[in-house]
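Cross-posting from the modeling subforum.

Setting up a comparison between two proteins and wanted a second pair of eyes on the formatting. Protein 1 (sequence, then structure tokens):
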Amino acid sequence: MERDPMNATTDDSARAALPRISRRIGSIAESATLAVDAKAKALKAAGRPVIGFGAGEPDFPTPDYIVEAAIEAARQPRFHRYSPAGGLPELKQAIAAKTLRDSGYGVDPSQVLVTNGGKQAVYESFAALLDPGDEVLVPTPFWTTYPEAIRLAGGVPVEVFAGPEQGYLVTVDQLAAALTPRTKVLLFVSPSNPTGAVYGPDAVREIGEWAAARGLWVVTDEIYEHLTYDDVPFTSIATAAPALGDRVVVLNGVAKTYAMTGWRVGWMIGPNDLVKAATNLQSHATSNVSNVPQMAALAAVSGPLTAVEEMKVAFDRRRRAMVSALDAIEGVECPTPHGAFYAYADVRALLGRSFDGATPATSAELAALILERVEVAVVPGEAFGPSGYLRLSYALGDEDLATGVRRLQEFLGSVR
């Protein structure tokens, strides 16, 4: 049949009107924490004396023995080739052993999928679990990537907010109030990014048993497991609530414990059918994680925890200094975090007030004003849920921290 030129013109016009970027990808917001960090680094490169409290990145170097393991691996031709999409067998074995050592949770290496950083583990877990419209309970404040990964996988994040008056810890009653017939997954994070909140053993068990009784999956991010303070223990929900059985997914990685944010090695642990599905996805998305970083990660998880214990001493000192300085500012409330390396300050009392002629109505506007006026980069609460809060990482040098909080005290203390 001969093509009608008029219809062809109509078809071409319709195609030209289609959006250039897919709605699925176009709706994703960039990582707010990385955006703040990138802006701070760009300003510093331009000669501005910016203090960056944005990125959750230890200021320590990766331990030497881990670096040496990577150098040795780079010399071996077998690591110049493709390896199994799910991870090097020896690394999967070591991750299983490390999980038993640190969490008391016994898994087979076949239940481990090694990923390109923790973010890939987050996305692939939700992609393998969720169908369009499935709901995920997300305790809030949340790490900025969680809801975006859920939406990208077709799911619906359901925020369950806990404010400073309850230590940023959600309760079973709050979770129950948010439950619907479409709820499939509970996201559980302790220690928390962005708040540093840590759930006690009894609360972890209660939440896990509640989820198990309702047939929910639990995706638990344990990447800050070794960063707790004040003798507050880390408790894995996988071991605290054995009734969850094979409906729990554990996410982790080497980035925070071993100062390896740039090496990009994470993992997910789950039942074999879920891990197989996520491995199939990864086989098409990225194939295997780079072999040299995998061997560095092997050295890390197989080695001692000396490095993180040394970092914790510095983090604890900085934590106390930051919280004390922030709490001294009128209108700022900052609960003492018991984990990770973040302080989450409540600044709602400062909004709508004047700072030398500027009147920020949101924490995003306040964060922008702080960067403009005193060259301190912080992440606003909008990145993690409701407005009215600021997240500050104390994983930076003592001198920079002291300078940054002094600038904040002077500027925020000038409010009228």
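Protein 2 (same layout):
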Amino acid sequence: MDRAVVVVAAGSGTRLGIGTAKAFVPVAGRLMLARALEPLVTLASPTLVVVVAPSALVDDCRELVASVAGPAVAYTAVVPGGTDRHGSVEAGLAVLPDTVTAVLVHDAARCLTPAAQFERVFDAVAAGGGAGFVPALPVTDTIKRVDADVVVETVDRAALVGVQTPQGFPLAALRQAYAVSQQAETDDAGVFQAAGGTVRFVPGDADAFKITTPWDLGRAESIVRASAAVPVPRVGLGVDVHAFDAASPCRVGLLDFPGEVGLSGHSDGDAVAHAVCDALLSAGGLGDIGGTFGTSDPAYAGAAGDVFVRGAVAMLAAAGMVPVSVTVQVIGNRPRIGARRTEMQDALAAVVGAPVAVSGTTTDGLGFTGRGEGLAAIATAVVRAS
């Protein structure tokens, strides 16, 4: 294991005024520490996570960490914190194995920090040649220097950034920096820099703000509620293939192509409509066209493709979902759809109830489509909760 995150969660949270350790304050129904840990168990590479907890809550913290980590609990540890942040960070660093080369120090109070920010800092430390890295955002407010209640001057904000966590460093260098620190610095980058280290920054994230006051807590809860209210889209894939049949009329993408050889099938053989139906069902987790409508059911003998697409849309609606968009590619030598692409898109969109994009291609003479034996279609559908 060559990388680790020390999560500092030993703060009292006095300014929140809630009367409990800050990391154990609920944020929209979930403890702050739990929200801070959740992104860590999604990281792509194995990462040791050390939580520095209030001394009186170490056992409670272990239970919480285990519930969040699940099967990855073996990659976690909980240690009691010190009398201040400086001592707590040192306690976390002390238990890391020497195999760790890169360590990130993170404040649990920045509980909405996305996983991408951790990865960004880890990547920077790995490529940084011994430097430390902090995530930072540009300062957007006008900054004034004051003397008591008198504004003295405007400070050039172009040279200023707002610093966040996690802050990342080579482990050995950060340990040495803390060993010689006089505890005057306010963050890990300050300790590292005071010991002669170079600190650079990477882009931060607006959601990685620190919860310090009741206003911050309210802001965090609003962000969580807004995020939960956004429907997560679902994607489905559909593929259909039909052989040509000279005895059948040609119907593709809900359009008739007079004079073209048709497609065989229990229904009208419309491979495009069938692929769209399958994609919609797949996105909704509702099975497939064969299992849903039956390839031998007499009710669907000769049925037009729109019957199946409308059926899939109705099933999505019953499951509380609606189509967002569909993309379908027609693969074959004929019929040529280029001149009727817009017409086909409009016909399909009218049934799907969402935009449909159609494209066509051939296989340069390869395979059954290249030999002119049949037609294939591949569709992708995006749906969301209604």
